[in-house]
Amino acid sequence: MVSAPVLQVDHLLFRWHPTRPPCLDIEHLAVQAGERIFLHGPSGSGKSTLLGLLGGVLVPERGQVTALGQEVSALDGAARDRFRVDHIGFVFQQFNLVPYLSVLDNVLLPCRFSAHRAARALANSDGDLRDEARRLLEALDLPRTLLARPATQLSVGQQQRVAAARALLGRPEIVIADEPTSALDAQTQQRFLELLLRECEAAQASLLFVSHDRRLAASFTREIALADLNLASVYEEAA
Amino acid sequence: MMVLLRLALASAWNRRATLGLTVLAVALSVTMLLGVERSRLAAREAFAQSVSGTDLVVGARTSPVQLMLYAVFRLGEATNNVRWSSIEALQKNPAVAWTIPLSLGDSHRGFAVLGTDVGYFEHFRYGYRRPLALADGRAFSGTVDGVFEAVIGAEVARSLHYGLGQRIVLSHGSGGDGLAEHADKPFTVVGILAPTGTPVDRTVHISLQAIEAIHLDWQGGAPIPGLAIAPDLVRKFDLQSKTVTAALVGLKSRGAVFKVQRDIDEFEGEPLLAVLPGVALDQLWQVVGVVERTLLAVSALVVVVGLAGMVAVVLASLNERRRELAILRSVGAGPRHIAALLVIESVGATLAGALLGLALLAVAALAAGPWLQAQFGSALRPGVSGPGEWQLLAAVLAAGVLAGALPAWRATRLSLSDGLTPRL
Predict the structure, then answer these.
(1) Chain A residue with minimum CA distance to B5
(2) pTM of the model
(3) Residue A52, in any domain of the structure
């Protein structure tokens, strides 16, 4: 029996402004449970826009975004915000952390906004949310001495790993990483990727990894080129 | 939501230098606004209590406000006097308990000279029916032997550095320099009154007989040429006043006040006017009130300027915070959370400013209180003084919420268009 995809896009059309030509026109895209997908595309090809649509921050003009059997694009704004934090973890290219919060508080942010994530994180540890956050940070190679530091005192590589811990805390079904390695040097890039893949597997999360750097594709179960997927021509504003 | 409150606090603390300055600006503007309000109330109270315990003020027929101006505040001059016989008739009215005759017109170095009788020290009340108190010395005797005795108000003593035994010369008429002087008949200060915060502080009190005495050899506002009566000879003359300027009247029962007022207004001997001091003071305050309302309006504007500065600072910070807002969006914050975050910040800054302003004012009131008490006989209270102040504080907070709406709206717009990836 084939289980339903965790993430699915059908007949999707999106444009930034009604008078402009479409920026995304995708007939079909599906991510199966446990899949690790490498989504590849040059900058300006609409990758970030697609992620916004998948995360329910943007709403398509036409078509559906379905996640975990729920049609996200049909929900109202507040419900989409809730769905996003309940089921999706995000890692961005850089400046992932809220500068005025400590490392630990940054990791705990999703649990502050989502009782669902907090409950799942608690189920994984016994008793304390912080314990689970510390366990994840340790698994991602971050020394305990850093936990109370303000996020801004960390190196970029460390910041990215804190962001990964935040994305994974409370075991969301889907992790979306948007160019998380482009700000890292080659060595840290490889190390970060290994850790991210390992922890996604441990958390049984599907991973959608977006990058312009095809050298990283080897570690993934599937590689998709956005250019093959997107029927709309590429426009300059779709950064 | 507690999360938002904690985030807003942490974020504000992160930008404490700039926000601190805006809070200080708001605090100073609130200090000014409440300071003006508090002085306004204190001034109004002092004004309304310039005279109390007096049921009617009686003078020659004129406007009630003008009568109050010269009889109570020693401002301006009476157009007509009241005959002594009318005062005597008034004293015979069975409802009248006491009368204080007032005779004005002369001055001493800019301070009004008031001729009255010893009943003044007994019956005159100010504030909450407080009697006059002597800080030093005694009241003038009111006898022929003590005719050249004077009792001075607190401010007269303080600003002219007068003590007991000081010899003073009165000038004819009131106003500036160049007045003819009653130099031949100097007075001796025998008493100094305690501060009252009323026009009494700025008055030199002498007896009615003394007023007669210094004008024996005068006519039409100038000494009669060739006629000079030495001070020790005045007792040979009849020093009974023929006229006075006005009189304060106390009744045996307040209930008779309108009847007595009507009796006086319809007095057949000469045209007289009797006013209820409370009513006339209220009318007078309507005139003076324009100034206080203008002051209040100006300080309200200062608060608006302070809040506008705060809005500018919060708006300017938004561009640096777009990344931060996008992160919050990714962990489930909706546009309404972003808006709430900014409203909390503005309201929090306004609230902090208002509280700091209150504290500054309390410190100022405590520090300057004794000095104000000594100078003006009334003090700024350190605590919130009335419902007006709470209303002003509420208005400031409401303005803070309104001021927060603009950055909140802008942040919501930004975070909607940015989504998860700000295009910086």
Answers:
(1) A112
(2) 0.75
(3) yes
